[in-house]
Fold this sequence. Notes:
single chain, alpha+beta, GMP Synthetase, Chain A, domain 3, 3-stranded mixed β-sheet, 19% strand
Amino acid sequence: MIQNQIDQRINEKLDIHHMTLENESYMHNVPAGSESHFKLVLVSDAFEGKRLVQRHQLVYGVLQDEMTKIHALAMHLYSIKEWSERNALAPSSPKCHGGEQGE
């Protein structure tokens, strides 16, 4: 539900070249089926010429309501040129250090 809301809001507010939104809650010490931890890879011309903090502020502004419902959002935000230079690859997410599953 929350994942769909995030996806919908971004697509409504930003001109997207590429987007992946992954629910990574299963990697953390949360109940099965949780929607608390997400990884967002977003490629848009809206990021061209903007510093990293400005890109994050833009996305946080778009997701203002949704951010109150989740614990973490890892954002990887690229201009189209940067995405091409990265060969369309985003970094992998690290393992959770906040507790092991089943503890």
